[in-house]
Specification:
The protein has ten helices and eleven strands. The chain has 255 residues and is an alpha/beta fold. The chain folds into two domains: 118 residues, no CATH class; 126 residues, Nitrogenase molybdenum iron protein domain (Rossmann fold, 3-Layer(aba) Sandwich), CATH 3.40.50. A six-stranded mixed sheet has the order 8-7-6-9-10-11. Helix 6 packs antiparallel against helix 7.
Length: 255
C-alpha cells in the first residue's frame, strides 16, 4: 500500500519544489494496491518510506513487485525512523532532511538551507494566526472566535501525546516534566527532550488522571486527535485540568 498527497511528507516535498505521483491515480485516502504499483510508480525517481518499527519496510522490501520498480532496484529508497506523517516545524525540517538524502540518491542536490527557509516560512505562517495578551499570571489566548485563559509562565507541563502535543510544547518552549512516549518507535522529537523528562510509555493508549496528578502539572498539552478520541470514549476528564489542545494551525483550551 502506498499513500501520497494526504501525508506531511508529500506536503514538505511540495514546499521544497518537488513533485509526487498524481493523487488522482490513487484510491481512497491515497492508497494504492500492489497490483497497480508498477503502472503508477514505475517512473518514480526515489521513495521515502516511513519506518514505524513495525516491520512494514522489511516486508515491503521482500515483495517482488516492489523489488521490480527501477528506483527500488537502484537502491533509491530512504527510510527515516519515526512517525512523521503529520507535525509542525521540527517535523518539517526533519522530513526535509530525509528528502535531501533521497535527492542525493538520485544524484540531484537540493539546497538544504533553501529547503529549511521554505519550511520555516510555512511554519511561521502556521503559528502567526493566534494572538496572545498577558495579564498578570495568565495569558488570554485568542484564535478566531475562540478565547481561553492559560498560565502565563507554566512551570510543570505534562504532554499527553508525543506527536502534535509534544511538538507544540517544544515549539512553545514549555518546561516539560513528562511526556507520552513510544518505547518501540522513538521519534525525531525525542532527541529534543532532556534526560530529566519522564517518558510515559503508552500513556495515550490508556490515559490516567492518577498519573497526571502524580506530576502536579499546571498545564497539560495534547493533540486534538487524541483529545477528541478520549472525550468521545469517556477516557479522560475534560474539566479536571487546564488543558491546551493543539491541532497544527489552531489550538483550543479547557480548564
Amino acid at each position: 500500500m502506498v499513500r501520497t498527497g494526504y501525508m506531511a511528507q508529500a506536503q514538505v516535498l511540495a514546499d521544497i519544489g518537488g513533485t509526487t505521483v498524481d493523487p488522482a491515480l490513487l484510491g481512497a485516502d491515497g492508497t494504492l494496491s500492489m497490483e497497480n504499483v508498477p503502472a503508477v510508480l514505475g517512473d518514480v525517481d526515489a521513495f521515502l518510506v516511513v519506518d514505524l518499527r513495525n516491520g512494514s519496510p522489511a516486508a515491503l522490501a521482500e515483495n517482488p513487485i516492489w523489488q521490480g520498480l527501477p528506483a527500488v532496484a537502484a537502491g533509491r529508497v530512504q527510510a527515516p525512523v519515526g512517525n512523521t506523517n503529520f507535525g509542525s516545524v521540527y517535523t518539517a525540517i526533519f522530513t526535509a532532511q530525509a528528502w535531501d538524502t533521497a535527492y542525493g540518491l538520485v544524484g540531484w542536490r537540493k539546497d538544504l538551507m533553501t529547503m529549511r527557509l521554505a519550511i520555516l516560512a510555512a511554519g511561521i505562517a502556521l503559528v502567526a494566526g493566534p494572538a496572545f495578551a498577558q495579564d498578570g499570571d495568565t495569558i488570554t489566548y485568542t484564535y478566531g472566535a475562540f478565547t481561553a485563559e492559560l498560565p502565563a509562565n507554566p512551570e510543570r507541563v505534562l504532554v499527553l501525546d508525543n506527536r502534535t502535543g509534544l511538538e507544540f510544547a517544544l515549539l512553545a518552549g514549555y518546561p516539560i516534566v513528562a511526556t507520552d512516549a513510544d518505547e518501540a518507535v522513538p521519534t525525531h522529537l525525542d532527541a529534543l527532550l532532556g534526560d530529566d523528562v519522564d517518558r510515559l510509555y503508552g500513556f495515550r493508549a490508556a490515559p490516567s488522571a492518577e498519573v497526571v496528578l502524580s506530576y502536579d502539572p499546571d498545564l497539560l498539552v495534547v493533540g486534538q486527535g487524541w483529545w477528541t478520541y478520549w472525550q468521545t470514549q469517556g477516557l479522560f476528564p475534560a474539566d479536571a485540568f487546564p488543558v491546551l489542545v493543539a491541532d497544527g494551525s489552531a489550538c483550543t483550551a479547557s480548564g
